[in-house]
Amino acid sequence: MEQFLQQLINGLAVGGIYALIALGYTMVYGVLKLINFAHGDLFTYGGYLGLTLLTSFALQGHLGTFGAIAILTAMVMGLVGIMGVVLERAAYRPLRESPRLSAVVSALGASIFLQNTLMLIYGARFQVYPEGLLPQVAVSLFGLQVPLIRILVVLASVVMMTALYLFVQKTKVGTAVRAAAIDQGAARLMGIDVNKVVSLVFLIGPALGGAAGLLVGLYYGQVNFTMGWIYGMKAFTAAILGGIGNIPGAMVGGLLLGVIEALGAAYISIAWKDAIAFCVLILILIVRPTGLLGERVAEKV
Amino acid sequence: MNGRLVVAILAAVALLAAAPFALDAYWLDVLNSVGLYALLALSLNVILGDAGLFNMGQAAFYAVGAYTTAILSTQLHLPVLWTMPLAGLAAALFAAVVARPVIHLRGDYLLIVTIGMGEIVRIALVNDVFGLTGGANGIFGIPRPVVFGYKIRKPAEFFYLIWAFVLLTVFLFDRLEQSRFGRALTYLREDPVAAEGSGINTVRYKLAAFVLGAAWAGMTGTLYAAKMTIISPESFSFWESVVLFLIVILGGAGSIPGVILGAVLVVALPEAFRGFATARMAVFGLVMMVMMIFRTQGLLPLRRPRFRERDLARAEVTRAEVPRAEAAK
Amino acid sequence: MKRVMGLAVALGLLASGPAGAADTIKIGLMAPMTGSWASEGQEMKRNVDLLAEQANAKGGLNGKKIEVVIEDDGGDPRTASLAAQRLTTKGVVAVIGTYGSAVTEATQNIYDEAGITQIANGSTAVRLTEKGLKHFFRTCPRDDEQGKVGAATIQKMGAKRIALLHDSSAYAKGLADEINTILKANKQNVVFFDALTPKEQDYSAILTKLKAANPDVVFFTGYYPEAGLLLKQKKQMGWNVPFMGGDAINNPDLVKIAGKDAAAGFQFLSPPVPKDLDTPEAKAYVVAYKQKYGESPASIYGVLAGDGFLSVTKAIAETKSTDADKIRDYLVNKMKDFPGLTGKLAFNAKGDRVGELYRVYKVDKNGEFVLQPK
Hints:
The complex is a heterotrimer. By secondary structure, chain A is mainly alpha-helical. Helix content of chain A is 75%, strand content 4%. A two-stranded antiparallel ribbon of chain A has the order 1-4. Chain B is mostly helical. Helix content of chain B is 74%, strand content 2%. In chain B, strand 2 and strand 3 form a beta hairpin. Chain B is globular and about 75 Å long. By secondary structure, chain C is of the alpha/beta class. Helices cover 44% and strands 17% of the residues of chain C. Chain C contains 13 helices and 14 strands. The chains are: A mainly alpha, B mainly alpha, C alpha/beta. Chains B and C meet through helix 1, helix 2, helix 11 and helix 12 of B and helix 1, helix 3, helix 4 and helix 6 of C.
């Protein structure tokens, strides 16, 4: 029983990160109906930029841990968000009217370009975050020792998701986003500047991905330039699992996928863990393509 | 028969026959690699270019074929070339089983499913599923192909084998495009709803495209296994599927010449520029993005039949003849 | 027409064939300069370049200058076979390389048919020297030798419950299988045998499962990035069971990734690195390397490439010939106890390196790798 609970917690913590990245995928897909393959690489940039900022400004010396982390997160989110906006302008906006396939290929090209440019800049080896940044405190939960940070990761994901959800549901700008997701043409007729909405989505989504990258760097202590591919695939699976285009769905999908993976590793086999995740994806697409919480827009699949 | 195709094939045959006398073993091997990629890209072209189905898991079918040949030739000692149709069959069956539940999915979703499927196959190979695949080590000691008692070993010899198959494939696929089957695929690619309405069973044709593309990839797997004599899962990674996908799209989806040009560029250029290897991938990605913006249809896109003056004149003559034929009855 | 043009483009990309200068001896180096093992390839190049430079400064080989010809094998069998073909057309008399058993295997037949001696530096799969190839050698030990030492070390620790973890790669699984077989033959209790996925970050699920199996020692046969993460996360969990590793872990970045606290006490197997050798040649080499590149040699496989270079150039010098059969004859029959960078070099009839190379290293609390006494 103890192992089950421990694995459950492990899964939730990993799932929290998947959820954060999935939020970005789901937002972009909701508005543009495009799988942004480059999203995983933006997440990786978050991890690397965090490292560069951390070491070049020596923040932890100046502000104490939590202050430093807060500023760092803000900076990383801002930078990666801007990268997202630029990416959209350069690679996707010119293809708005083109067939779907072109945008997919362009997204793939962007992913390859970003990943390899990162490798050229930082080198092929793993990069390591400085030690001792996060407090290594463990709290006792259901009789298990759980590192505080893991709980914070899940909490951070939930907080960001809630903030995003409220933004989309309750604010005027959020309503514009939803309108553009349902029908771009009609939204334009209603006076909504769709280009601005799309730029906003590409600011927020990648910013969240960048934050996730920073979290991964801080918590696991290590980043490598291929992690965008793995995390991206898992996060995309999570988004589909919960229902693509659906914000709470991304959250649910992320956490659920993390738990399925952890339990699959524990009770079936670690070596097949990724295959299990992909099987889940395929099954969902066959059995319930709209995902657990349902796709936001009704469309023939 | 298309006159231009005949001329092209004859010229190609002449060039290819002469090549082993002009090139050294290394460049012949590069052309062998081009040939294999051309075959794979042509097989994917049937699925992606002709039928318009987003498939980024073609490497899985390639792997099924290669491993079938490897297992049959090392365990049952079947001659390699005899395993070729069996490899094609295995890949075809695999495609039929795997594609059936997902064939109705919309473009992007199908893309993701095929990616997932490719990965599952790769993981299964690495984990030595059924104890047959040798795990990460792969399978080694695959015997060389024997044609009428002659053992094929050197790059020059493989050159003839591979490119003969390429020419055969080009011929067959070109005929296919002109046939009823090919036209049905084109129809359902351009407008699936109208195609269904015209009585084309889209599910059956889509599956047929998948199965055919898979079978060809499987047979190419046989050639690859025979050439390398060892195969391992890393040759069948997601990246391979991406490369094939790109060859088809960047060369011109649906267009056989475009696809072959794509294969040539993708294989031969990195070899010619061996010095700039590290930046190669980043440039590749950039090229992809730029091409989609400026030349979406690819380098040598499919040319739609154009009606010219003489076609109009011919139509007039035929129309004038009809009443005469009627009167003669 | 377009297709013909396409073919013409391909043929037109012909680079002119190599024109070998008559007064150099060309030694080929096939290494992963790109791809996932680019860092190993770079190390291989550094070592061989330095040794060639040193040899040329002393007058070269048989009166001629040594020229090192490098080809990138991309860490992938297909690229490697093209690289090998290319090297055979460039007039090299021998090839050093490469890293990765599957990659090396793809090129063995090509060199054999061209009559070129091949000395691999980082290919430990047993079967590579079981094929009867007369001109294939390796300076790295085999997985079965490492397996023997691994199993012996585990038993010497007095461990009663043993966990084996690999990463599904050919090397790691091979080594884990060897250790497993020996332990089982000695009636030891292996309580866990599974693989993790490389390049992931979060190994908490695996560590939790390992912990539940309650082993006395965990032997991880994979590579250093994952080892570093395992050690770090194991410490975060507060789990103190000793971990051990194979020679793919021998890389200073291990301590960077795990952190000094977590890495302290970790043991692994490896051929001795130059700085731990007592011979004056090895010590001098480390100094020269540091002078040229600013740091000590980081990878044992790069150094083994250097040993391959030394072996083949010695054979050529002693036999005054570049004929592959004569080189083989020298290496197998006449070369005994030749001082190399990793110890004494000698080869047996199969082409394997003779001698018990593997030693145990322990990481101390400063993150230094300390060679343990035998």
